[in-house]
C-alpha cells in the first residue's frame, strides 16, 4: 500500500500558494538548458506547459497522436473560461470562485488546490489577451462576461461559442514560437504506449509512430501527462473518437495511483442520440442555458403526441409547459450545476415526459429570450451554435426549441497528484483533465479551460523546478538503457498479441459492448446490484476480446484498427476500475449518484462521516484486484453541507 503525501503547504489558505512558491527550489537559467522534459498531449494543459517551460529554458519534447497540436480536443470547448475578475461588479472574488468550485464539486476536492486555481484565474485572462485571444467585449471595449451553471455571478469569459478553439490557437502560437527556436522538439502522430521507470523515477516513454508503425524510445529527466480524460470508455460521449485514457492508464500500470475513477460528468445540454450507428454525441454549450429555458409538457398525453410526431412544441400552450428547473430550483433556475440539471432531465424522461420519438429528450427554448432581446442579439451570442444544431438535426432553433438530453462529457477522476502536480512516481507529473485534483465529484461549467491553463501556465512551471533542482547533475538519459529495451519489448509483445488474435469481431464492436455496459450500470444512476453485474460483464467482455478480436491491415505500418485495439483494451480495464470505485463509494456526490443514497426529494445525499476521502487505486498486476489507498480530505475553511440550489 502506498503512503500518499499531498504536500499541501501549512498556513492560512490564502497564503499557501505564495508561501509554497517562496519555499520550493528553483533551477537557474544555465541549469535549465541541461534538463529535458517530455510533455504528452498538446491541448490547453500540455500546450501551455510545453510553451511555458520552453520559454523558461528547458528542453521540451512534445507529443500528440493528432496530425497537429492544434487538433487537440480542447478546441471543442464552447462556452467559456472562468476567472475572478469581478468585471461585472457583482461581488465576485477569489474566495467566491473558490467556494463555488468546492461546492460545485460536492465537497470532494482539496481546498488548497481549488483556492490556488481561483488565485491564478485572473492571470490566465491577462495571458490570453496578450496572445490575442479575441474574447467578447462590451461596447466600450472591456471584456464581456456571462453566467454559467452553479454560480450567481457572471465570471465566464468567452469568444462566442468557440472559446476552446481561440484559447488553443493562442497557446498553439506560443508553442510554435518555441518550436521555431528549437526549444520544443515536436512529435505529431505519435502515441504513448508505455512509461519507462529507472531506479524509481520516470525517465522516458515508449511510443508508436502512427504513420510508419515504428516503436520509438524517448528519454527525459521528467515526464508530464496532459492527455485529457477517459469519457470514451462509454463509447458514446461528447469527446472526439480519438480521445482515450491510454497514457493515464500506463501511468497507473507503472505505479501511479488512479484517483476517483467513478467521478464522471454527465452534461445536460447534448443533442440526443439519433441512431444505432452514431459514433459520438454533440455538445451544445452550457452557455445556452443563460437564455434558453428548459421544459417538458405538464400533461403526459401531450408528451405522447410529441413522441409520435403528432404535434410540435409550438402547439403546447404556455400554461401546459413545465419549466421544471425553475420550479424545482427557484434560486438558480436553468443555471443549476450540470449534475443536478442532468438528473432532473432524466427524471422527467423516466416519468414519461420526454419530447422526441425515443422519449429521451427535453426542450431548450429560446422563444422567450428572442421576444425579450430580439433575434439579432441571440444570433450575435449563439449564432454559430444555432447553425451547428440546425445542420445536425435539420431543425431551426429560432423557430422550434432545441431538443437536448444528458451525455457523458468530462472526467473528474484521473491520475493522483500532490500539490506540485507530481504523481506518487517521482518525475511523473499529470496536469489538466488527466489528473484528479481540482473539481471533486462534479466540474462546474467553464472550469476545465481554467484548470488546464492554470496548470500549464502558472502552476507546473513553478513546481516542476522543485523536483528538477535535484536532477541537474543527472546526465541525459540513454535510450539504450536496459529499462528502455525491456519496455520496448513489452510494447511490441502487447501489439503483436492483439494483432495475432485473428478473431471475427471488430474493435468497435467490443467498444460498443463496453459502452452499453457502462451507460446501463455505471452511468447516470448506479446501484450495488448493477455495479456488481457490470464488473462481471466487463470481465466476460475481456475474455471475448482476447479470443475473438480481429485487427485487419499490416502490423508494421499505419494501422488505425491496431491503434484502436490498444485503446479499447485500456478502456476495458479502466471500465472495471470505475465500477469498482463506484461500488466502494456508497454515497451520492456530484456526478456519482448511488440510488441507495438519496434525500427525500430525490437529490444526491453525501455521507461525510465515511467518504470524505480521495479514492486512490493502486495497480497490483494483471488479473489481480487493485488496492484502495485513501487521502483524507480536510476542510478548514468551508462548512460541509448538503448542496442546495433551491
TrEMBL record:
This is succinate dehydrogenase. It holds the Pfam family Succ_DH_flav_C. InterPro entries: FAD-dep_OxRdtase_2_FAD-bd (IPR003953), FAD/NAD-bd_sf (IPR036188), Fum_R/Succ_DH_flav-like_C_sf (IPR037099), Fum_Rdtase/Succ_DH_flav-like_C (IPR015939), SdhA/FrdA/AprA (IPR030664), Succ_DH/Fum_Rdt_flav_su (IPR011280), Succ_DH/fumarate_Rdtase_cat_sf (IPR027477). It is found in: Cell membrane. Its EC number is 1.3.5.1. Residues 36-449 form the FAD-dependent oxidoreductase 2 FAD-binding domain. The lineage of its organism: Bacteria, Pseudomonadati, Bacteroidota, Bacteroidia, Marinilabiliales. The active site is at residue 338.
Amino acid at each position: 500500500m502506498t503512503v500518499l503525501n499531498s504536500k499541501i503547504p501549512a498556513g492560512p489558505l490564502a497564503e499557501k500558494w505564495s508561501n509554497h512558491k517562496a519555499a520550493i527550489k528553483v533551477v537557474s537559467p544555465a541549469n535549465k538548458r541541461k534538463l529535458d522534459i517530455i510533455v504528452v498531449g498538446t491541448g490547453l494543459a500540455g500546450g501551455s506547459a510545453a510553451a511555458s517551460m520552453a520559454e523558461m529554458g528547458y528542453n521540451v519534447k512534445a507529443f500528440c497522436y493528432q496530425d497537429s497540436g492544434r487538433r487537440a480536443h480542447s478546441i471543442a470547448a464552447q462556452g467559456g473560461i472562468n476567472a475572478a475578475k469581478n468585471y461585472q461588479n457583482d461581488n465576485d472574488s477569489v474566495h467566491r470562485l473558490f467556494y463555488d468550485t468546492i461546492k460545485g464539486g460536492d465537497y470532494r476536492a482539496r481546498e488548497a488546490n481549488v483556492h490556488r486555481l481561483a488565485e491564478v484565474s485572473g492571470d490566465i485572462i491577462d495571458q490570453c489577451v496578450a496572445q490575442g485571444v479575441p474574447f467578447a467585449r462590451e461596447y466600450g471595449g472591456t471584456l464581456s462576461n456571462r453566467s454559467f451553471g452553479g454560480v450567481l455571478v457572471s465570471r465566464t469569459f468567452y469568444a462566442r461559442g468557440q472559446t476552446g478553439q481561440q484559447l488553443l490557437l493562442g497557446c498553439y502560437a506560443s508553442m510554435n514560437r518555441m518550436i521555431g527556436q528549437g526549444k520544443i522538439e515536436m512529435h505529431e502522430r505519435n502515441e504513448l504506449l508505455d512509461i519507462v521507470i529507472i531506479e524509481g523515477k520516470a525517465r522516458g516513454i515508449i511510443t508508436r509512430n502512427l504513420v510508419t508503425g515504428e516503436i520509438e524510445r524517448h528519454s527525459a529527466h521528467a515526464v508530464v501527462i496532459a492527455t485529457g480524460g477517459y469519457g470514451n470508455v462509454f463509447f458514446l460521449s461528447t469527446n472526439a473518437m480519438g480521445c482515450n485514457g491510454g497514457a493515464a492508464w500506463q501511468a497507473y500500470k507503472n505505479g501511479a495511483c488512479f484517483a476517483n475513477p467513478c467521478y464522471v460528468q454527465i452534461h445536460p445540454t447534448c443533442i440526443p442520440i439519433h441512431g444505432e450507428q452514431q459514433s459520438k454525441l454533440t455538445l451544445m454549450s452550457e452557455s445556452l442555458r443563460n437564455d434558453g429555458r428548459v421544459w417538458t409538457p405538464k400533461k403526459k398525453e401531450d408528451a405522447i403526441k410529441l413522441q409520435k410526431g403528432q404535434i410540435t412544441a409550438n402547439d403546447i400552450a404556455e400554461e401546459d409547459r413545465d419549466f421544471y428547473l425553475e420550479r424545482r430550483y427557484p434560486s438558480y433556475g436553468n443555471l443549476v450545476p450540470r449534475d443536478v440539471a442532468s438528473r432532473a432531465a432524466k427524471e422527467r424522461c423516466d416519468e414519461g415526459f420526454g419530447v422526441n420519438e425515443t422519449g429521451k429528450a427535453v426542450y431548450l427554448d429560446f422563444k422567450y429570450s428572442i421576444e425579450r432581446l430580439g433575434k439579432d442579439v441571440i444570433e450575435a451570442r449563439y449564432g454559430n451554435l444555432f447553425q451547428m444544431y440546425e445542420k445536425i438535426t435539420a431543425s431551426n432553433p429560432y423557430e422550434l426549441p432545441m431538443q437536448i438530453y444528458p451525455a457523458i462529457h468530462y472526467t473528474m477522476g484521473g491520475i493522483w497528484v500532490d500539490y506540485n502536480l507530481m504523481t506518487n512516481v517521482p518525475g511523473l507529473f499529470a496536469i489538466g483533465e488527466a489528473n484528479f485534483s481540482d473539481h471533486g465529484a462534479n466540474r462546474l461549467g467553464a472550469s476545465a479551460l481554467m484548470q488546464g491553463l492554470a496548470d500549464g501556465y502558472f502552476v507546473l512551471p513553478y513546481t516542476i523546478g522543485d523536483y528538477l533542482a535535484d536532477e541537474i547533475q543527472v546526465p541525459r538519459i540513454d535510450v539504450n538503457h536496459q529499462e528502455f529495451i525491456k519496455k520496448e519489448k513489452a510494447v511490441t509483445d502487447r501489439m503483436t498479441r492483439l494483432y495475432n488474435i485473428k478473431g471475427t469481431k471488430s474493435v468497435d464492436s467490443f467498444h460498443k459492448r463496453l459502452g452499453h455496459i457502462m451507460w446501463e450500470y455505471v452511468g447516470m444512476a448506479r446501484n450495488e446490484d448493477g455495479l456488481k453485474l457490470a464488473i462481471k460483464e466487463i470481465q466476460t467482455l475481456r475474455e471475448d476480446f482476447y479470443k475473438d478480436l480481429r485487427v485487419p491491415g499490416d502490423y508494421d505500418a499505419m494501422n488505425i484498427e491496431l491503434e484502436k485495439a490498444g485503446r479499447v483494451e485500456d478502456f476495458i480495464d479502466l471500465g472495471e476500475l470505475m465500477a469498482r470505485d463506484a461500488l466502494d463509494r456508497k454515497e451520492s456526490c456530484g456526478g456519482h449518484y448511488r440510488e441507495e443514497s438519496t434525500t427525500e426529494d430525490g437529490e444526491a445525499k453525501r455521507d461525510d462521516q465515511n467518504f470524505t476521502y480521495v479514492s486512490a487505486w493502486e495497480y497490483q498486476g494483471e488479473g489481480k484486484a487493485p488496492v484502495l489507498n485513501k487521502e483524507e480530505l480536510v476542510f478548514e475553511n468551508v462548512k460541509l453541507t448538503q448542496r442546495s440550489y433551491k
